[in-house]
Amino acid sequence: VVPLSATVAAARLAEVLSLHDVAFLPGDEAAEDIAVRAVNLALATDGKTSVRLADEGTRVAAGLVFELRATAHSEDSGVPTVDFDVALSTVELAGRLAVAIEAASGTDDARVVVMLPQTPPEERDRQRIAVKLLDAVCGALD
């Protein structure tokens, strides 16, 4: 039996993701696993979602790119950046992402950099980060 809360959460996730073009761009090797996991989770929720994995050449038409990084880069000046702190609740993270999305929406490059914590060695911890990230993105876009 699937709990009602899980069913409602999956339906909300599918609905929000169907309304937005979103891409996850791994900005470095350490972030690639998290980006792939977030995209796979979105696709598992709704196979028709427009969420996708991006590369440097990909631009999402009228959409939003979340560039995931474990290390900072100097070319990020002026790009809204959110630190993914595992101690934050999903609601708090969503609030920070919403502010960054608002700042990015007025630019030619609709991109938000998400600074990931040190990539955990445990697979389940990486999965938790991907789940929390996707849930927070949906909360920010909802």
Characterise this structure.
The protein is an alpha/beta fold. It has helices at 4-18, 29-45, 90-105, 123-141; strands at residues 22-26, 52-53, 64-69, 81-83, 111-115. α1 (4-18) packs across α4, α2 (29-45) crosses α4 and α3 crosses α4 (123-141). The longest helix has 19 residues, at 123-141. It is globular. The chain starts with a helix and ends with a helix. Residues 1-8 have low confidence and may be disordered.
- How many H/I helical runs? 4
What percentage of the residues does DSSP assign to strands (E)? 5-15%
Structural class: alpha/beta
Q: What's the helix-strand series? A: HEHEEEHEH
Low-confidence stretches: 1-8
Tertiary shape = globular
Mean pLDDT rating: 82
Helix fraction by DSSP (H/I, runs of at least 4) = 40-55%
N-to-C terminal Cα separation, in Å?
27 Å
Strand order of the largest sheet: 2-1-3-5-4
Tag the structure with descriptive keywords.
about 140 residues, disordered N terminus, alpha/beta, 5 strands, five-stranded parallel sheet
List the helices and strands and how they pair.
Blueprint: H1 4-18, E1 22-26, H2 29-45, E2 52-53, E3 64-69, E4 81-83, H3 90-105, E5 111-115, H4 123-141
Parallel strand pairs: 1-2, 1-3, 3-5, 4-5
Helix pairs in contact: 1-4, 2-4, 3-4
